Task: inverse folding
């Protein structure tokens, strides 16, 4: 078993298996086993935290959401949708060894040019940042915590 780093996230009950020499984790959102990379380790813990601690319905969350930006296919790490199917939250993950820099914020901002979600979150499992978009004033503000799920969001 590969040693994974300690994260600044609650423990998650991960289903692991070896597939040849590749360690895989069961992604409950995609309903399949995927390679357990450092970024995937963060994703699995973070999505469990979103559902378990903040009440976000797993049925409204998708991993690896495709979008087209400037005629190029891109993939958002996780998108939380509202009940009407519109994007509410975009989450971008990095491995714990990758610093959260302006480049990461630029990446998620580009995705949001297409999706126009209300909240943007970036995390490397150690540091988490959440901001709320204000489209009326063409601005955003960083929040001190992730908002709990409610249908009014």
Result:
């Amino acid at each position: 078993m590969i040693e994974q780093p300690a994260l600044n996230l609650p423990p998650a009950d991960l289903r692991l298996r070896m597939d040849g020499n590749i360690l895989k984790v069961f992604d409950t959102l995609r309903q399949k086993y995927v390679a357990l990379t450092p970024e995937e380790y963060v994703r699995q813990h973070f999505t469990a935290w979103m559902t378990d601690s903040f009440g976000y319905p797993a049925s409204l969350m998708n991993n690896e959401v495709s979008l087209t930006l400037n005629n190029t296919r891109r993939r958002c790490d996780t998108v939380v949708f509202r009940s009407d199917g519109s994007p509410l939250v975009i989450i971008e993950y990095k491995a714990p060894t990758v610093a959260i820099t302006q480049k990461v914020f630029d990446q998620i901002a580009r995705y949001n040019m297409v999706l126009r979600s209300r909240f943007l979150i970036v995390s490397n499992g150690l540091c988490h940042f959440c901001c709320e978009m204000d489209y009326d004033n063409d601005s955003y503000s960083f929040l001190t915590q992730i908002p709990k799920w409610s249908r009014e969001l």
User: Anything to note?
Assistant: The chain has a mean pLDDT of 94. Residues 61 and 80 are 4 Å apart (CA to CA). The chain is about 20% helix and 35% strand. Residues 38-143 form a domain with the tt1808, chain A fold (CATH 3.90.1570.30).
